[in-house]
Every structure is written in structure tokens, then in C-alpha cells.
Amino acid sequence: MWRFLAVLTAFLTFSQALMAQDAPIQALLQTHREIIEDSSRRTIGPAIDALANSDLPAAQTVLEKWQNREMWQRNADGLFFWAEEVDRDTLRIHDFDSGEALGDFPEDDFDQLRPNSGIRGLMAAALVQFQRSDPDPAIRRDALVTIQRSADASHLAPLRASIEDEADPEIRASKDKLERLLTISFGEDEAARLDAINDISGDIALDVRATLNPLVQTRRKVVAGAIPASENVARELQPGSEALPREDAYAMLVEADLAPPRVSRAALLAALGENIEGGSVGGVPVAQLGTDAARDRAYAGLVADGKAPAFIPETAIDQALNAHSFYDSYVEPSAAVTDAAQEALSHIARNVGINQMLDLSLDGLSLASIYFLAAIGLAITFGVMGVINMAHGEFIMMGAYTGYVVQLFIPNYTVSIIVALPLAFAVTFAAGVAMERLVIRWLYSRPLETLLATFGISIALQQLAKNIFGTQARPLTAPGWLNGAWVMNDVVSISYIRIAIFVLALLFLGLFLFILKRTRLGLETRAVTQNPRMAASMGINPDKVNMLTFGLGSGIAGIAGVAIGLFAQVTSEMGQGYIVQSFMTVVVGGVGNIWGTLLGATMIGFLQKGIEWFNPSNTLAAQTYMIVLIIIFIQFRPRGLIALKGRAAGD
Fold it and tell me: In what order do the strands lie in the sheet with 71-74?
């Protein structure tokens, strides 16, 4: 019985071998068996090309399995299969042509083909022609990316053929654009290339600029006589001009073997010194070498004796330069194509400039929303109470740490942020009320003592944070839906976190306006702001209003801390980075005025980004320039953009 099974197994294996040898794809693989087994990047090309150009249905499967190291060769007969591991020692073998499983076999009977990264790159390029029409849209997109990375003239015709049958509008648009780019780079018809350039003119995408820039690249050339008419000349060059110094022009002649090398004056003197014999050199006594003319005669004698290279006089250099033409020539031979490319790049440059201004404006708006969130609480506190609170930055820090602690207990980042915002407000509101009741209330109308006291509290809160959380930055992770950025094009983009902060700033602007205009607390706050004595006589308790206002301002700072902590490092010193800007925002906008704070934050945000744009490598210098400009502004508008009446204005 066992002998019968062994014979049957041997017969089936032999039958499979005969069937595999007759299969078209197996026959092709056997034709290139030696170079496949050698697996060298230098020699593997013909095998990959044969598969890619075979028009066999299984060719794509072979390349994919081979690329993924799932292709195996049987030791007994050298046939190739693709396999999946059943367990550590067993393979399930599949036929390439039919895709059917041929059974489970010991792994020791097969050798795995393991192409290196270079060979896998060749396979990826070969697979493009299969993938561009694959039923899976994701594979078609990947194929387009592969073509973009390693574009070749051979890709153009198959890409064009696949456009008409493309059903996905987004992929078809990508194919249309890629076809335009490949036509520009590899098209043989000049009219088609010009049409393609006109079609993409003004598109600021990086791939468009990367395609057009090589068309306007130039090479510096020199020829004897006039410039050939066949050259696509970018500009003619005059030796001795700023574009082509005289020395560089002659060096080009020497490099092109159009003139002998020039001997410098220093080399001439060195040659004279090395060839002094019997008190003379080149037939001229050393005592007579006091002039350039004598030294030139001596050197001419050395040249005549074959002891030194010829010295080229200035007149000969001028003659050589005048006898040759110097010019920059486009690498692209077609003048019409280079002219169209130049015009398209000029159009693109204008569009890039416009989009850079838009991107800069978005950055300025984003920074303004951050400063507004950081300063809005200080604006109310300072405006109503006249208190210079140097610990305002530490309330921002407390809010950020509150968000961090919440995330320790709530791993869901979306839920944790929703919980952290009101909790940060509650924590910093309570801290602000405690600070006002314990310290600030005893120092009203004493600004210097208030400044010193709040500065001391600021240091104490920083040290307390270090003792609790340490000196290392703590992560405050944004929810997944806030990751990434809104990309309008290759120039303009803004992160989703900054968009969320901008929206949060607008929400708090609306909330504060509602509180001030529609609530009893807002009415009492405005009354105390305008005239505290009159407000007290009307039954309003100024102390209570001051306490609630200070707590409200501190609570808003805590919420700002959560928002800022999503993109900035949460440390004990993080508040110090916003305290100066917060005070500048309040002072520039107008003390105690919400709209003034908004205008002040906008002005400072745009000003800082504008200065950083002119000096992008030194943000510290940009902030210094900004502070100087703000100081100058305050000289002319000491009460800010929107000044208040009453106590906040100093009346």
C-alpha cells in the first residue's frame, strides 16, 4: 500500500512538471532561468523586460510574487511557483498560469527567490503597465505615483491608451495631467508639446515646475567664430562683462583645447628662480631682471630651450577671446518650446507669489487667533481691574497641564479634549478667584506692588509645576481628526489644529460678546469699568465683580492653555512665551475692549509673520523688531486702537 502511494505521488509530481513545462509563463521563465537564478541587478533586466512585454496573463502575477519574495524554485526540476507558508517547514505551492494550488510540500525541496531593493525597483517600474488599468483604483493610483517618480518615454503611449477607459474622475484627472507632463518631457511632436505647456501654464504644483524647469536649463559654451545657427541660444556673452569675467572666458578656451594654458606672473617668476645657472637665466643676467620686460625676455629664453611652457601675452589672450563666441545655450533644442516654457514659468511665478501671500495671511490669522485666546482673559482683567497680572501665562500653563492629566485617565483623545476644556476653565477659574481674594484685593491702586506680587506668584507656580510634573515636556495629544493639514495646493496649507484654534477663538469672541452685552454680569462689568463709584451707588458690588471678572479671565486662559498645548510643548515655562504677546495685544488693541483685543491680536499676528517672512532664519530677531515697532506705535496711540472711557482708560 505504501509503495503504491509513493508511486502515485511520484507520478503526480512528474505530471505536474510536464504540465508546468508546457505552460507559456513557465516556458518563458525557463528561458531566462540562469539570470533569474543569478539574481543580479546588472543582468536581470532582460528577464523582467521579457515578462513585461510578453502579453501573458500570468506575467503580472509573476512580477508581483517575485517582488514580494513569494516566488520559489523547485530543486528537482528548476520550475518556478509561487508559494505561501503553511507552517515553519511546509509550503503550499501554486501554479502561475492557473493560480491553482498544487499541494503542500516540504520547504527544503524549494529555494526562495529574494530580489534585492534594486531588482524590486525594476519590477515596480515593469508592473506600472499592468497596474495603470488594474480594476482596483488604489493600484491605479499607485501606478501613477510610480510613473511620476521614474518617468520614462515608454510610459507615454500606454498611459494615453488607458485614459479613455478610466471611469474614476479623480484618477482620470491625474492621468490627464500626467500625460501632459510626459508629453512635455518626452513628446516627439513639437506642436503637442506646446499645447501641453499651454494647458498647464499657471499650475503651481511642484511636479509642473519640475517638468518645466529642465526645459530652460542652459549650458555655457564657446565656439570658434560665429555661433552655429542650430543652437538654441539663451544669451550671448561678452568676455570681461559681469556675466563672464575675462579670466573665466580664457579658462573656457583652455578647457575646450582652443587655447594654450596661461602662465601666471607668479609661475613665471618661479620658473626663473628654478633655472638660474651661472648668474643668468634664459640668457639674461640676474642683475638685469629688475623690469617685467627683462623678465619676459629671460622667460622667452627658457621657452626656447624647452625648459618652460610658453607665456601668453595679454595681446594674444585678447586675440583669442575675440576669435571665439561665448554664449549660454538651452539644453532643449526647440526655441519655441523654451519660449513657451519661459512664459509658463513666469505665469507660475506670479501665481506662486499670490499664493505665498495667501499662505502668509493664513499663518498670520492663525497666530492672531492664538494670541487672541491667550490675551482675551487678560484684556478683561486688566481693563476692569487695572491689575497687571504677570502670572497670566501660568494660568495658560495650568490649563495645558489639566489637559495632560485628563488624557492620563481618558485615553480617547476626542473625549479627553471635550472633558479637558471645561475642567481647565474650572481649575483656572478657581485659582484666579483664590489669587484675587488672597492677594490682588489688597493691592488695588498699587500697580507696582501688584506687578511684583503677581511676578512672585508666577515663579512659585512654575516651580510647583516642576515639582509635580518634572522638567520634561509632557504630551498633550490632539485627536486623530485634527492630524494633518488642509492643503489647498503645493504652496498654501494650514494645519487642522490651527483651524480648530481659529474656530475656538471665534466661539469665545461670540461668548464674551454675549456675556458683556446680554447678561447681568456683563452689565455690571461694564458699569464697573466705566465708573466704579457710580456702579456701587446703584447697588453693584465692585469687589464681587472684580472677583468674578478675574476668575473669568483666568478660566479663559486655562482653556487657551489646552488649545495651545495641542501643538506646543507643555512645560512649566510655556506661559512665559505668551505673556509678552498677551500684554502687547491688550495694549495695542485698547485696554479692556474685546474688539480692541481682536484687532490687536490680528495686528501683532500679521506683523510678526510679515517680519518673519523677510527674516525667516531668525525668529528671535523678528520678535525683537516687532516689539520695537509696537513701542513706536504706542508713542502715537498710547490708548491703543480702540480706547475705552472710564477707569480703564485712566480718566
Answer: 101-106, 90-94, 80-87, 71-74, 110-112
